[in-house]
Amino acid sequence: MTGHAIVVGGGIGGLATALALHRVGWDATVLERASELGEVGAGMSQAPNALRALAELGVEAEARAVGVPTYSANNLRRADGRYLQRARPVDPTPLLAFHRADLHRVLLDAAPGDWLRTNAEVTDVRQDGDGMTVVAGGTEYRADLVVGADGIHSAVRSAVWPDAEPPRHLGRTAWLGVADVAGLSGDLSGSVTMGNGDLFLIHPVSRGRAYWALLTSEPAAGVRYDDEKATALDHVADWHHPVPDLVRATPDEAVIHTDIRELPPLDTYVRGRAVLLGDAAHAMSPDRGQGAGHSLEDAVVLAHALATEPTVEVALARYDAERRPRDQATARGARADGARTASRTGQRVLMTMVQLMPAALWRKGLAPDGNPTWRWAPPPLTK
């Protein structure tokens, strides 16, 4: 089966969807409300499941060319610098770290350019007959289905799922940044440091930079500070190197402050011929590093279902049955992980468990097939 889809959202999930549809012979129109296509944010890592999805999308080589191996999962540390678990020089790492804009560019370069529409903010989504109509930027678009890949504040979800609960604050907030690492000392190969209920993540990214994220408890959503960088630095000023140096080396205006939120689980990703994927369907806590990765998975599974099932309705039902349980299980796990590390008591228990774990067992869990989430394999995308 082939057809035409409207994909709302030009981020990583939307572009992955466009590319996946293109590979199975579908056409699509990608609607992005911004005036330019680009990715907002700083950095991230992708695990083996996401890298397999990128391979099925035909862009693995290009992604690996802009990604940097990160040992963030191998190197766990205390705030004073002591290692709970430490990577050896001979240890491989299954994770690649990216600046979000670099991975977005890989997908943008691979997607058909004539499918993309900017300045196209969606104002209406409706089903009529055996198709869907979307109004965006004053223009009506009609297609066989609509894919909402437009993030946690999805216009498609608001229009078609008006009864859905809004995103909820998880009692945590984060500062993010990317710093030039020239002249900085300390381990910049990737690490996670815990202390006082805070967590500091480091990923190396391309062009001599490092991405960092500081996560801490914050009961109220929307709390902001006159000097965000100074506030972040206050949390980690006496932590081991290079933690405070990375914050200091980040331009003031480049420090991002964002609250940690998730989307309450939906009872279906499909209504009529509208379907949700990525953060529009399952925005989750970042603690398992799977938000963008599950968006890539969603895109591949959706395109495969549309290519192999006899009708759009059957394909969307299959997509929902395959993706929703996995996405929502990962979101539950990420929420639980975040709650554990946000608690001083939880951190102490976790650090004791990690320190007592035999190094060989720890490394086994970091193999590409070391856990069920990472073992996921994509269906084939062929025309």
Structure overview:
The structure is a single chain. The chain has 383 residues and is α/β, with parallel strands linked by helices. The protein has a domain of 226 residues: FAD/NAD(P)-binding domain (3-Layer(bba) Sandwich). It is 34% helix and 25% strand. The protein has twelve helices and 19 strands. Helix 1 packs parallel to helix 9. The chain is globular and about 65 Å long. The termini are close together. The mean pLDDT is 96. Keywords: Monooxygenase, Oxidoreductase. GO terms for molecular function: monooxygenase activity. This is FAD-dependent monooxygenase.
Q: What is the fourth-level CATH superfamily of the domain at 4-68 and 95-167 and 262-341 and 358-365?
A: FAD/NAD(P)-binding domain
For the secondary structure, the number of strands is 19
CATH architecture of the domain at 4-68 and 95-167 and 262-341 and 358-365: 3-Layer(bba) Sandwich
Between the first and last Cα atoms, what is the distance in angstroms?
10 Å
Largest sheet: 7 strands, mixed
Quaternary structure state of the chains depicted = single chain
Unreliable runs, pLDDT <50, ≥5 residues? Answer: none
Mean pLDDT reading: 96
Secondary structure layout plus pairing:
Blueprint lengths: L3 E5 L3 H12 L3 E5 L11 E4 L1 H9 L3 H7 L1 E2 L6 E3 L4 E3 L10 E4 H11 L5 E2 L4 E7 L2 E6 L2 E5 L1 E4 L6 H6 L7 E13 L10 E5 L2 E8 L3 E9 L10 H9 L6 H6 L7 E7 L7 E2 L2 E3 L2 H4 L8 H18 L3 H30 L2 H13 L2 H7 L18
Parallel strand pairs: 1-2, 1-12, 2-8, 5-14, 12-19
Antiparallel strand pairs: 3-7, 4-7, 5-6, 9-10, 10-11, 13-16, 13-17, 14-15, 15-16, 18-19
Helix pairs in contact: 1-4, 1-9, 2-9, 9-10
GO molecular function, one term: monooxygenase activity
Pfam family, one: FAD_binding_3
Protein name: FAD-dependent monooxygenase
